[in-house]
Amino acid sequence: MKESRNSSQYLSHLGKDIPAGLVVFFVALPLCLGISLASGAPLLSGLVTGIVGGVVVAWLSGSQLAVSGPAAGLTVIVLNGIETLGSFEAFLLAVVIAGFLQLILGFMKAGVIGLYFPSSVIKGMLAAIGLILILKQIPHFLGADDDFFGEMEFFQPDGRNTFSEIGYAFSAIQLGALLIGVISLAIILLWDNPKIKNNKILKFVPGALVAVLLSIVINMLFINFMPELAVTSSHLVSIPIMESFGDIKSELRFLDINALSDPSLYIVAFTIAIVASLETLLSIEAIDKLDPHKRRSDTNRELKAQGVGNMVAGLIGGLPMTAVIVRGSTNVASGAQTRVSSFVHGIFLALSVLLLAGMMNQIPLSALAAVLLVVGFKLTKPALYKTQFKLGHEQFIPFIVTVLAILFTDLLIGICVGLAVGIFYILKANYKSPYFYHKEEHQEKDYIRIKLSEHVSFLNKASIILTLDHMPHNSHVIIDGENSAFIDYDVLEAIQEFKKTAHERNIKVELVNINDVEVMDLH
């Protein structure tokens, strides 16, 4: 019954999911190739992972809208891993082992970690990704960037950084690429017009598809009639052309089982498993925030899906994968409703390798940059900054620190910095509210009642200790745990230590529903 209900749900949304999947495909195609290039891996390896992410992981995933594939955040790990293990074939074995470790993490229910990422940090990550997409695509939009299409780090392979690359791009504009980019951007924006959205036929045609197809036509016109404007091959999509099954087989790489005796294999595998899992959980949490239906993804199921995906990808010559925020946010922005859109993107990636390589290689990167510029703006709208600012500094500071940290380093380092700041404000908030404090002044002595809250964790320990340290001399202190469902051992120990030494300040301590615990005594 549940399966038939799911099937009808998927069928009812095909009109939105197929166009969305096509748009995600256009974004994912150059990203898969660019990440392969930056990782020092065979070009086809990134596409293999993108195909597995769409065709296999989409159906196993705990999320309806996440899209999996090779991640820019793993390029350094892949590059170093291949170098450490001595060959790409040995590295593939590490990918398979990493997938197995992720599968174990899923069964151990480690996905719960995703629930502990502060909302302000997740929103900061989305805003930062949006900013980076805009800044990184400007040089491609102008036809002046030869670095790989999917790079996200501040410092680039050619020695420039995000901002100096833009400065250079304006001095090296390729006019034909710029014209194609501007026309593509205009079409995508025009397609958001209510008249087109409400048109019975046009609403099923993605604006990105129209823009990409027209970009190919325009470049062909340039080649034939204005060669000086033609976009050069370094600024076009570049897929290996394979005309037979034998060609595909010769391009694919397979793992080297002999690497099992190398201890460094397991270090590389463990690193991939942990980093890929964290990036996946962050992406899933972010996509859930973007989901218009506000569905909660099963993060444990997602870890299992990623584990299976990495095992399959490693076995057939692919790079390690994660749920990728760029593709996921593009998916949401394109109107996707279910996992079918991710599956469609995987099918199109497979077709591009098997049948459409010649046509795909005619797509100017400036047209694809236009797609990402729109996605980037939707992620980092000024209204988001305004909303976070209105929420107060406890929300705004972790948010803006995350944005800046990701912008000037990379995704993982930036997230760690943002989490550190976010955790500081969480600790500060917990420090303030573990109990209710009531003081009654009498002639003989002050009566002070400290009524503990329902849940008192170790995070509250510092606040309670400081309060007890500042109790006035000659007072009567009642610490009441009647309403507490849970009091952490560390807090109980601190209360008992206070009770033990309170007589030195002539303080009488009365405990209500507070369990006794042993306190270390060296005397």
Strand order of the largest sheet: 3-4-6-8
Measured between the Cα atoms of the first and last residue, the distance is: 69 Å
Number of helical runs?
22
Mass-distribution shape: elongated
What's the oligomerization state? single chain
Helix share bin: 55-70%
Reading the helices and strands in chain order gives HHHEHHHHHHHHHHEHHHHHHHEEEHEEHE
Biggest sheet details: 4 strands, mixed
Instruction: Identify low-pLDDT runs.
Output: none
| Whole-angstrom Rg | 28 Å
Structural class of the helix and strand makeup?
alpha/beta
How does this model look, in words?
The protein has 523 residues and is of the alpha/beta class. It has 2 domains: 14-405, no CATH class; 435-512, Transcription Regulator spoIIAA (2-Layer Sandwich), CATH 3.30.750.24. Helices cover 62% and strands 6% of the residues. The protein contains 22 helices and 8 strands. The chain has helices spanning 2-12, 14-39, 43-60, 75-85, 88-107, 119-141, 162-171, 175-190, 194-197, 207-225, 245-251, 263-290, 299-315, 325-333, 340-354, 357-360, 365-379, 382-390, 393-408, 411-432, 461-469, 489-501, and strands at 68-70, 321-323, 435-440, 447-452, 455-456, 476-480, 486-487, 508-512. It has a 4-stranded mixed β-sheet with strand order 3-4-6-8, with no helix packed on it. α8 (175-190) runs antiparallel to α10, α8 packs across α17 (365-379) and α21 runs parallel beside α22 (489-501). Pfam families: Sulfate_transp. The chain crosses the membrane at residues 20-37, 43-60, 88-108, 115-135, 166-192, 204-226, 265-287, 308-328, 340-358, 365-384, 396-427. Residues 437-523 form the STAS domain.
